[in-house]
Design a protein that fits this description.
Layout (H helix, E strand, L loop, with lengths): L2 E6 L2 E6 L25 H17 L5 E5 L6 H9 L3 E7 L3 H13 L6 E4 L3 H10 L4 E6 L6 H10 E11 L2 H5 L3 H8 L9 H18 L3 E11 L2 E10 L1 H11 E6 L6 E4 L18 E7 L6 H14 L6 H13 L7 E2 H8 L6 H10 L4 E4 L2 E7 L3 H10 L1
Parallel strand pairs: 3-4, 3-6, 4-5, 6-7
Antiparallel strand pairs: 1-2, 7-9, 8-9, 10-11, 10-12, 13-15, 14-15
Helix pairs in contact: 1-2, 1-10, 4-5, 8-9, 10-11, 13-14
Amino acid sequence: MEYIKVFEGRAVLLVPNPDLFRRPDGVYEPSWAPVFYNPRASLNRDLSVVTLATIGEYFSVNSFNIADILAGVGVRGIRYCLEVPNVSTAVLNDINSNAVTVIKENLALNKLSDRAVVYRSDANALLYKLREDRYKLNFIDIDPYGSPTPFIKSALTNIMRGGFIGVTATDIATLSGIKYLAGSRKYDVKLSRTDFKFEVGLRVLLGYIARRAAESDRYVEPIVSVFHDHYYRLFFRVDRGVSKSHRMIVEELGYILYCRKCLFRRYINDLNILLDLRCPKCGHGFEVIGPLWIGSMNNKEFISRLEAIVKARYEYLSNFNRLLKLITVIRNEVETPYYYDITSIASMLKVNMPKVEEVIKCLQGRGFKGSRTHLTPTGIKTDADYDTVMECIKSS
């Protein structure tokens, strides 16, 4: 197999030659290569590096023992070791024997062979083996090609109390309700197509993880939740406690009621309190989405610290400007369980699409919060009521 040398962050890596695995349209298809490496996900990895570094400072973690359980060429684990302070040891695993060979070569190339242990194993089996061997992990990275669901339970079970997990999901259509039947099966939720689908996907994923955690009296605290390009990325803290686990289920999980006719939406914690499944604006039947996470998905204090650390230490990243812009938008987002897509609403109202900033200005002028969202360039987040949003879109 032919490999080439690439540079990402502080790492130098041997990766499959992308010219050998291009589609007829010339686009590189990483899943065709004998060892997985996706250059398009470099911003995901940049975000992961800076988030783990910020976790170390914000939560006063003196030493990280990390595991990259689906390592591919080993890029994540290697970059954590090189670019995050206080990473003591790293477990890098892949079930592919070709990947294991490349991981070892890349560790040697970066002079990290003495700081990492390489396994060839099923990811779930490895996590349970490490637990049996009393190998304590305080950060687990789950970065699959597709859905992370097969690995959630073992990661939740085997992370140290108070430890952290990073999860990537690339099955956007399934989570967001575009393929709502597949999403209902895989994530045990009721889904529907909406105009705020990308937020639905994030909240469905986080809600699924929270419900799996609660099964063993654990609870999760979201730190960073992102949608970008072709993936979702979550970071959260995991701890144990019956009362906090129960409170999470009662207070942080719920349902969104959505009217496809007039695009009205609201959220509730408990379907049992719902007396009428008809939209109060047009009388059309509601579509129920959930259960999903309806609480805060981003720790804003943490995001501010993250932004400062990126500015101070990570200017060398090739995605520095894009990453900083993404973090800044998330920091400024209004905390609501859904956004309003101006394109969809303007079409429904049969008006010209107004400028996003003009709608936000209108909402703020009426005493409400309003912001852009990182989830889509035509979306706004606001605490304003439905009627006010409609009026501002009409008048802007």
